[in-house]
Design brief:
Helices cover about 30% and strands about 25% of the residues. By secondary structure, it is α/β, with parallel strands linked by helices. The radius of gyration is 15 Å and the shape is globular.
């Protein structure tokens, strides 16, 4: 293994020890795996690879997307599409999903309320009614999109696994909002 890859792998291992990533690995991924179905993971990095495998171990079908073409190497081989989450409805016009994990995208490219609103509309168009949206965002990057009403038209808060609809952390600025598609 070359030095760059070792550094990336060490960074991925450190990220997976953060409290928000522990909740993802210990609570959300197992809960989504039990529900199964077709799952879209928005935002691919090396540290998300293990999550896809766990979701698929119980019969889920994971698809991935990222705006960065270089991130395709961390996407699901044969089920990855490169594109803007604000256009997910066009990017995945031939598919619908039972769940979508959109984590670390808002505030990292999808920044303005208008962009966020477009992203939520596009995601609502490809997740089935009653399907899940797990939204991860950071309080130091953007204003609260749920409190601002940006999700209200298409989604409502819902428990996921053993977690409440909103999970916040003292040690990091990350927030998870678990939502379901209205209709």
């Amino acid at each position: 293994m070359d030095a760059d890859r070792r550094r990336r792998s060490a960074k991925a291992a450190r990220i997976r020890t953060l409290p928000d990533r522990r909740v993802m690995a210990d609570s959300y991924v197992p809960a989504l795996a039990v529900e199964g179905g077709r799952i879209l993971w928005v935002g691919c990095r090396e540290y998300t690879l293990d999550d896809y495998a766990l979701l698929e171990a119980q019969g889920g079908e994971v698809w991935t997307t990222d705006i960065d073409p270089a991130a395709a190497r961390w996407g699901r081989e044969g089920r990855h599409r490169t594109g803007d989450v604000c256009e997910a409805d066009r990017l995945f016009s031939d598919l619908s999903f039972d769940a979508i994990v959109c984590n670390g995208v808002l505030g990292y490219g999808v920044d303005s309320p208008d962009q966020q609103r477009r992203a939520f509309k596009a995601l609502a168009a490809i997740v089935r009614p009653g399907g899940r949206l797990l939204l991860g965002w950071n309080t130091d990057k953007i204003a609260d999109p749920v409190a601002a009403g940006l999700t209200e038209a298409d989604f409502q808060a819902a428990l996921l696994g053993d977690q409440p609809s909103r999970v916040q952390f003292d040690a990091v600025t990350h927030v998870y909002d678990s939502l379901i598609r209205r209709g």
